[in-house]
């Protein structure tokens, strides 16, 4: 190297000012963030043991209890994305040698299985086709056959657009076999009816970036007293120190003892997102999601497209729309992104190439976004040669919203 040369280690990289595109997020998540939540994230930082932050922690826990519809003491935001809350649930509740029954009817049931195995559990499955819910009779048979210690189910399967009905029937059957129940509520919390206590769910976890319209980083988790007792009575420590709930209890419980530096700004954001839930009212929020998603559903059907999930288990917060024959779903997603700054997504796993996944979540669940989505999707499909009637779709949306 010459005398005047500058090494890459010495030269500062030239990086432009941050300027992300202004998208409308109608995919499977994240969803559009409410302006109040963005403002909350710009407020001054304090220490994670500052008295003002400790007071805020109490408020976040109370708001989470309201949103989960639970009185559980052990209700916290886990520092991390929704997958961190999921791993905290399975990594703490499942001990080596425990039998864990999980569903096979979607991408996130498969993730449950993976996490339970990593925790040392012996995984067995209750089967259903992708795009269908679990049949309570099949769950009962699997419970009788395997006598599991833990039963997990996905309340709102993001990969298929299916809402699991009959939740109290499933939890009662599991408890009859002395199994703890873990519910994946990532795409249902704050968007569709969820009643943790009334439905006797032992553990539920979620992500803030879906129906709560909050950036990822602090993810809701709630455990019943009985579930937390199992966690605290473990014979071996969980494999993750960071997600060990017996240690996190010292920070989020009465002691407020140091465990790790909490993502303070993300907790600010979650608090404001939950304040918006409380101001709207949880049942009114469920109704809004159903009303706006019904308009979206009416629009895509009037346009000539079919929904993947029948009405009996249609998931308002994540709409699975069948891809017309001969259409490349990826090309359509690219077209609406490029032409309308609108994000939707294609299918995963067994449904890859077969469905569009269109969210209707949180702050994004607004009339103008539904009209935009039907318009953009219809135009892109028509350009690709599909037999669709975009105008009829938009008319149906507007009629539904009257």
Automatic annotation (TrEMBL):
GO terms for molecular function: transaminase activity. It comes from the Archaea. Residues 47-305 form the Aminotransferase class V domain. Keywords: Aminotransferase, Pyridoxal phosphate, Transferase. Its cofactor is pyridoxal 5'-phosphate. Residues 1-32 are annotated as: Disordered. Residues 1-17 have a biased composition (Low complexity). InterPro entries: Aminotrans_V_dom, PyrdxlP-dep_Trfase, PyrdxlP-dep_Trfase_major, PyrdxlP-dep_Trfase_small, SP_NH2Trfase/AEP_transaminase. Pfam families: Aminotran_5 (PF00266). Belongs to the class-V pyridoxal-phosphate-dependent aminotransferase family. This is Pyridoxal-phosphate-dependent aminotransferase family protein. The lineage of its organism: Archaea, Methanobacteriati, Methanobacteriota, Stenosarchaea group, Halobacteria.
